[in-house]
Write the structure tokens for this entry.
Amino acid sequence: MQTLDAAFSALADPTRRAILARLTQGEATVLDLAKPFDMTQPAISRHLKVLETAGLITRRIEGTKRPCSLAPSAISEIDRWLDMLRQALERNYDRLDTVLAEMKENEEGTKT
């Protein structure tokens, strides 16, 4: 659950979400990721550190560069948690459908 908390905390920031969106297009260096933002390279590096700590990205060393990419299983834990919520909502809606159908049957039975 700590990983999930860290991931949601990391995703709370719009800059970090934008960085993740950029990384869906492929690997990028810190300088590449910093270009669209009005912030310094160290500020982007701090955002990347948060994303890396949350397990959402990976960084590798390539000479003097540290290319970043989405972590292969970055979204899987979030997706499992959201799927659990989706299933719970579906069960709630199914129960509601059953109650409404019973109410309709009762209403039709009292009219005759």
About this structure: DSSP finds five helices and two strands in the chain. Strands lie at 57-59, 68-70. The mean pLDDT is 91. The chain has two domains: 2-70, 75-112.
